[in-house]
Amino acid sequence: MIYKLIYNIFLFIFIIRISYSCLLEGEKNAVYTSVFEDLEPKSVLVHLPFQSSSPDIQLKLIKGEEYVSLDTKERNLILEKSLDRETGSHKFEVVVECKNPSDKFFPHVNISTFINVKDINDNAPEFEQNEYKINVTEELPKGTIVFMDFEAHDIDQEGDNSIVKYRILPGEHSKYLDIQDQFKPIITVNERIDYEKITEFEVEIEARDGGEPSLASTAKLFVTVLDTDDQNPIFSQEYYYTNSISDSFFEVFPSPIFAKDGDTLNEPIYYELSGDNHNEFSINSNGSIKLLGEEVPSTIIFVHAKQVNKPERESVAILRIANQTSIEFQHYLYSVQINAKAPIGMELIQVKATTSNQHSEITYSIVDDNSNLVSIDEKSGKIELASNPSKTNYNIRLMASDGKARTWAQFHVTVTNLNNYEPEFEKKNYKFDIKDSSLLGQIRAVDRDSNDTLEYRLLNLNALFRIDQEGMLSVKNLMALSPNTIYEIIVLAEDTQGHKTFTNVKINSHGGISSGFKTAASILAFVILIITIAIMIFFVLKKIKKIWFSNKRTQCWMSTGSDQGVIITESFETSKSETSTIRPTNHRSLFESPSPKQQKNDQSITLQKPSSPPSMSTFASSPSIQVVQPSTVTNNTSNTSCGNAQLVPVTIKGDKGTGAPTIYF
């Protein structure tokens, strides 16, 4: 037994000695490390700390290839892809196989590396919705909870990175609401909300985490304010009056008595009367006043409007009742129509009131009118235009008094042809693209005044563009525009009263002239160029041909001549008679006869085409030129030719002696 124990101890020591090169430092059996999830790929994840640096060991990655690669030379694990703790695993294992060829008992050892992925604050809190909508009743006390059905979640690791705090961002209406506890998604009323001042509004809620740096997101909260019954009834007028009665019911001015609920709830209203002599009158649910007695007393009474469900909701109006036998206008309503250009001082109408007091004097006045449109003669009741009208309708209240009683009437003025409005363009800005046509499009303005006309003008770039009175905008000359240029012009619209408005127009020339127009112009220029080149080539070829034939004939004649004949140095048209100089050429000479002395000279002779070719004997009689009869002429003159030039008979007149020998050229 002891021998076996000793054997095992020696065997273990031997194995350790053999496998020493694959052991980790500190005799660890695994590697543990932590990295943040934002570690960049290709970064060193961890170094494998082997005890031996022997190059004999062989390393191989057998687990974790989806995350890392192995640098066998440096013995490092390299990160191959981005880490995300929230969407992937927050930890993983990598196994590296270590082989030692000299170890026959343990051919390989597996070394595990455990990587823990640490969280960073890379996710902002997210609301369940981007928008929320709630209804809030007006006049709720401060601190009342109005909304708590919302929350934001942060998927970062639990801790500061995922702790969410809430607040309402500063804004135009943020004063109305509040989040008292920033860690709880609960919204309360912060300030009085009055439906009569605001019916709806919106605020922005922020959710922010506690990471470094912190991240935040927002959501909108739309609030609709609900009306409550917190307003008293409202009368259509504060003051009413009457001086006319029909079938015991009074005709009330300036409008029938009417009141409605001051809230949007439209609660039912009823009326009551109070004041001196109010028992002599009654009022129904429609606001109609009825006389209960026989006579109409002149008095002032108070009309009360109350809500049926809440009588404490009450408003009061004043009704003045005048004895109808005292004073009244002939009409309760006067109406005139005037032109906006009517002259100041023009009489519009004369109103008249009557009184039962024959000894009293009636005076007229205008009350409750700030327009100062008209004036009234207090004695005659004539109404004149006092200022230029600025709107189309006026309602003016007139009053007549005899010193004891008063009465009122309405004066309505309608103004025609009033130019109150400035022209308005249909668009704030116009954009046009230049195409094949010079016409760009229409710019249109409208004037809400009736029977008014507009004039259009360009305030710049008049040399390039034009506009007519229909607002049609066009280009004056397409060729004058620069390509790929945006032109900005200002267009003015003016009405007959001088009211003006402006608009901005952008015109894009793109490539300048349109492609079709450019193609046509290019083709035309190309055709003109081809025609010009063709004409030039024609004349050049014609000239070359003429020179070529002339040189050819000259060379031909000079090469076929002899010392016994006439050397032709020039050719002439057969229909002409010219004088030419015959010069010695190619060592050939002209000889004079009978002079014994041979000399070289230039002879001027006249060449003429004779009417009929003379005989060849004519050569012998010439004293001026000694010519030996060429055999070619004797045999057949038609065979002697150079190119298209044929021998023709001409007469040679020498400048000495007489005679005119005829030879063939």
From TrEMBL:
Q: Which GO terms describe its biological process?
A: cell migration; homophilic cell adhesion via plasma membrane adhesion molecules
Q: Which residues cross the membrane?
A: 520-541
**Annotated segments matching region Disordered:** 575-621
Source species, domain of life: Eukaryota
Give start-end of the signal peptide: 1-21
> SMART domains per the record?
CA
A GO MF term: cadherin binding
Q: Which UniProt keywords apply?
A: Calcium, Membrane, Repeat, Signal, Transmembrane, Transmembrane helix
Location in the cell: Membrane
**Alphabetical list of InterPro entries matching this protein:** Cadherin (IPR039808), Cadherin-like_dom (IPR002126), Cadherin-like_sf (IPR015919), Cadherin_CS (IPR020894)
Whether ATP-binding counts among this entry's keywords is no
- The primary site where this protein sits is membrane
Composition bias of kind Polar residues appears in: 595-609
How does this protein sit in the membrane?
Single-pass membrane protein
Residue ranges of domain Cadherin in the record: 27-127, 128-235, 330-425, 426-495
* Annotated Pfam families: Cadherin
GO terms under cellular component = catenin complex
Coiled-coil stretches are none
Which PANTHER family would you find in this protein's record? CADHERIN DOMAIN-CONTAINING PROTEIN, CADHERIN-23
Give the protein name, as stated in the record. Cadherin-89D
Which species is this UniProt entry from?
Answer: Strongyloides venezuelensis (Threadworm)
